[in-house]
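User: Design a sequence. Structure:
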């Protein structure tokens, strides 16, 4: 069960050109292209004549032509030309989706277009003020296992031994502040007086031990914002919430279901240090990419097992707090949209 009336990330602004791109979101095949007027169009990727995917077609100005028998559709999905035929029936149309670009992020609304309110889009000004690099990929797991993974960072001590984790003990002892919100959950984790991870130490010069913070905000159903960093112990990171002068990293996550078993994982890394050095942005991106490869192995294996042995009980432990709040927020929204109780909502275990 998906939340239908919500903004999901469909990609990055730079990915969309006049060449049609076929992508599936929430089990629906969609064709996306940028028209001559600069606006991105999203239509059902299925011609209403004989079902050819329009993503095989060609864009002319703001329209797309099906490559099978040449029907042409405008940005609203209406057929505007049938070769060799004057009459065009009003039923000659394909579905069109509301779409908005903000902060280099492309957002799509898969539900009722009448309900699409661009004011509800999560804003991300850091793409304009910090140097960043972004990636789009598909993971072979349910989308909720991706947000679960990000919302329980205790996994880093085990999964990211070689990349992000420095001091397994610091992960277990981290001080955690969690606050549920109407749309999800926010939390901050503090790892005080610990050894900086290799990634941090290679990015900026520390005197010795550091105070680390990890701030996360989950906005149901599809988005997580992360701000992570570290300062030398004694520089006021924890005591006065000083954030400048050490390591700082922001990650934007758009987690969009492709199907129940596959997920579009859109993420960008932005660096808050050595901002005039493109190689610092590049190096950060590749370090995080290596860490996400470690997550990918885990969550794809987890997904396969949960599918094979579905129905068997699972347990929650203390570190599941933020993850459980996130699931509750999403289930509340799905229940409200469908007019059912939260207990009737069916999502991945
Ligand atoms: S299937 Fe598209 S024009 Fe015939
Ligand atoms: Fe991870």
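Assistant: Done.
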């Amino acid at each position: 069960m998906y939340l239908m009336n919500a903004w999901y990330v469909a990609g990055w602004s730079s990915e969309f050109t006049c060449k049609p791109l076929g992508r599936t979101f929430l089990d629906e095949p969609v064709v996306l292209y940028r028209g001559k007027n600069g606006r991105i169009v999203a239509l059902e990727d299925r011609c209403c004549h004989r079902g050819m995917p329009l993503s095989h077609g060609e864009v002319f100005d703001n329209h797309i032509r099906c490559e099978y028998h040449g029907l042409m559709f405008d940005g609203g999905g209406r057929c505007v030309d049938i070769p060799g035929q004057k009459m065009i029936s009003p039923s000659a149309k394909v579905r069109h989706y509301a779409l908005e670009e903000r902060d280099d992020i492309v957002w799509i609304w898969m539900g009722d277009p009448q309900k699409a309110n661009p004011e509800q889009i999560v804003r991300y000004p850091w793409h304009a003020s910090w140097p960043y690099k972004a990636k789009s990929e598909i993971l072979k797991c349910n989308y909720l296992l991706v947000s679960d993974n990000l919302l329980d960072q205790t996994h880093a001590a085990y999964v990211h031994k070689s990349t992000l984790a420095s001091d397994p003990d610091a992960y277990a002892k981290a001080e955690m502040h969690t606050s549920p919100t109407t749309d999800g959950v926010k939390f901050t984790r503090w790892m005080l007086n610990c050894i900086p991870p290799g990634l941090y130490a290679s990015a900026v010069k520390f005197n010795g031990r550091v105070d680390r913070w990890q701030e996360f905000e989950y906005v149901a159903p599809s988005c997580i914002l992360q701000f992570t960093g570290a300062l030398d112990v004694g520089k006021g990171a924890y005591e006065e919430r000083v954030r400048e002068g050490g390591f700082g990293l922001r990650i934007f996550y758009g987690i969009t279901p492709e199907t129940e078993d596959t997920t579009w994982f859109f993420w960008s890394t932005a660096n808050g240090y050595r901002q005039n050095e493109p190689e610092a942005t590049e190096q950060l991106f590749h370090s995080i990419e290596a860490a996400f490869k470690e997550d990918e192995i885990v969550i794809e294996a987890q997904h396969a097992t949960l599918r094979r042995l579905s129905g068997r009980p699972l347990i929650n432990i203390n570190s599941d707090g933020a993850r459980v709040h996130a699931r509750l927020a999403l289930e509340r929204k799905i229940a409200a949209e469908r007019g059912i109780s939260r207990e009737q909502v069916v999502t991945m275990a």
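The first strand starts at residue 7 and ends at 12. Residues 7-120 form a domain with the Rieske Iron-sulfur Protein fold (CATH 2.102.10.10).
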